[in-house]
Design goal:
By secondary structure, this protein is mainly β. It has two domains: 172 residues, no CATH class; 320 residues, YVTN repeat-like/Quinoprotein amine dehydrogenase (Methylamine Dehydrogenase, Chain H, 7 Propeller), CATH 2.130.10. The protein is 3% helix and 42% strand. It is built from three helices and 40 strands. The strands form eleven sheets. Strands 1-10-37-36-35 form a five-stranded antiparallel β-sheet, with no helix packed on it. 39% of the residues are buried.
């Protein structure tokens, strides 16, 4: 996994056998705590040591030497380590104040499966289950990666239950209340996995989406609707796995005729109960569907021919937290559905995007869209007064610049895109666009090198109304002509590789 840094400190990582005592910077440890990932944090006179247990043979220890880090601010002597109620880690340093520590150095990481012995690197789909990433791999069905232990799991026995002709898992759909995980594959239909309470797979059931005259074994996408049914987009229309019949295959023939039996690349089940289906070259469609009566209604087609969309090649659909529908196209950029006009319009500042090929869409917890393209990732704020666009990772020489359609997972705090060179992992809260910075906080004021904390209450009240971090005004006399300030600002360190 490759990590990136901009204006924050880099932290070197050293891996040594557990029996080798020399990798600790000091034998004196001031304070220790354990983070939410099971890593032990130890403060010493030389910096910060983070100890991790691994399954790689010698159970090595990971050491982050803060005292040797690069940058303007360095923390040398970690006196105390503390985890707050939100899981954030705080460090106090002798002479350097207080630092908030984050798990992402500047919020961008990359993971290439080939670094873990996997033969292929093109990521076609992503699903995160606790610490485990399920990763669809072109040419190898899927792999599972343990983020905490930094290892690819040995799934040889599990993969034997899958046909070699699957090629890749192109979509994951979780039904958590039933402990089910559906895997739609590139060439061989859908597999239904049942997990036990420990997260292991108990059983694997194959669902043939080409059986009994159904659509096609070549699947492109899968989503769950509001009623719990699984909608599968195939090379020749749609297949529905009905929840009320144990996810039996249902082929809505009359609907597929209206869809021109075209290849469905992406499906979105919106919060109003509509189904949106984007096609390879026939535009997109909206409808509602009564599964029990095999009847659709409110059917609407959006295409270049009727002027309701600028490009017929629809690669991805996404409904944001405000109910706005977005469509990413192959060559037509990013489009937004305008409900009052019942049409899709290209965003106004489309010329600022690095590419007009849009592969995947999601959003962060601030409501900003994250968009993977044929030339990197952008963050887009639809509500911004300016252009609202920011190219993420380009200035950091992000290696994985070309992505794959619908290969995305997000819980809004962590965003993961899949591309031809593996995974790109983003921590939005840890990424600062150009021109933004953390606001420092004044923690002390000194008059002639003497801290106001050493003054009596009466002396201090004449200068400052309350303690420095909370005061808005300082009143100085004409003789108080030597003044200095101490301040702290959050420092971000890489603490999880």
């Amino acid at each position: 996994m490759k990590n990136y840094s901009t204006s924050f400190n880099n932290i070197s990582q050293y891996v040594h056998p557990k029996t080798d005592k020399t990798h600790l910077d000091w034998n004196i440890i001031y304070d220790m705590d354990i983070d939410d990932n099971g890593y032990i944090w130890a403060g010493s006179p030389g910096g910060l040591n983070i100890l991790a247990v691994s399954d790689n043979g010698f159970r090595p220890m990971k050491y982050y030497d803060v005292s040797r880090s690069e940058g303007e601010r360095q923390m040398h002597e970690i006196m105390s380590v503390f985890k707050d109620g939100d899981g954030n880690m705080w460090l106090s340093d002798y002479g350097q104040g207080l630092a908030l520590v984050s798990y992402a150095q500047n919020g961008i990481e990359e993971l290439d499966p080939r670094d873990y012995g996997v033969s292929f690197s093109a990521v076609t789909s992503i699903y995160k289950d606790g610490d485990i990433l399920w990763i669809g791999i072109r040419g190898q069905n899927f792999i599972r990666y343990d983020m905490r232990r930094d290892v690819v799991l040995d799934d040889t026995a599990l993969l034997r239950k899958f046909d070699d002709d699957c090629n890749a898992v192109v979509g994951f759909v979780s039904v958590e209340e039933k402990d089910l995980l559906f895997l739609s594959t590139r060439y061989n239909g859908v597999y239904m996995l049942h997990k036990n309470k420990y997260g292991s797979v108990d059983s694997v059931k194959y669902i043939d989406t080409a059986k009994d005259g159904a659509r096609n074994a070549f699947t492109n996408t899968a989503v769950k609707d509001l009623d719990g049914n699984i909608w599968v987009g195939t090379k020749s229309g749609i297949v529905i796995l009905r929840e009320d019949f144990g996810y039996a295959v249902h082929s809505p023939d009359s609907l597929n005729r209206r869809l021109h039996n075209c290849a469905i690349e992406t499906i979105c089940a919106d919060t109003d109960g509509n189904i949106w289906a984007g096609s390879t070259d026939s535009g997109l469609f909206r409808f509602t569907y009564d599964v029990n009566n095999d009847r659709f209604s409110d059917f609407r087609e959006y295409s270049v021919s009727n002027g309701t969309v600028r490009n017929n090649k629809i690669q991805t659909l996404f409904e944001d937290s405000k109910g706005r529908l977005w469509a990413g196209t192959e060559g037509g950029g990013l489009n937004r559905y305008i409900e009052d006009e019942d049409r899709f319009n290209i965003i106004d500042n489309m010329n600022l995007l690095p590419s007009d090929q849009i592969f995947a869409l999601t959003e962060d917890d601030k409501g900003c869209l994250w968009v993977s393209t044929a030339n990197g990732v952008i963050r887009y704020d639809p509500d911004a007064t300016g252009d609202g666009l920011w190219n993420v990772g380009i200035k950091d020489e992000l290696e994985n610049l070309s992505f794959i359609k619908n290969a995305v997972w997000s819980d809004h705090r962590v965003i993961i895109f899949g591309g031809y060179d593996g995974l790109s992992i983003f921590y939005p809260d840890m990424i600062l666009p150009e021109g933004e910075a953390f606001v420092p906080s004044i923690v002390d004021v000194q008059i002639f090198n003497e801290s106001v904390f050493s003054f009596s209450r009466e002396e201090r009240s004449g200068l400052i109304s309350t303690l420095p971090p909370f005061s808005e005004r300082i009143t100085l006399g004409h003789k108080d002509n030597s003044i200095s300030f101490k301040f702290v600002s959050p420092i971000l360190y890489q603490c999880l590789a």
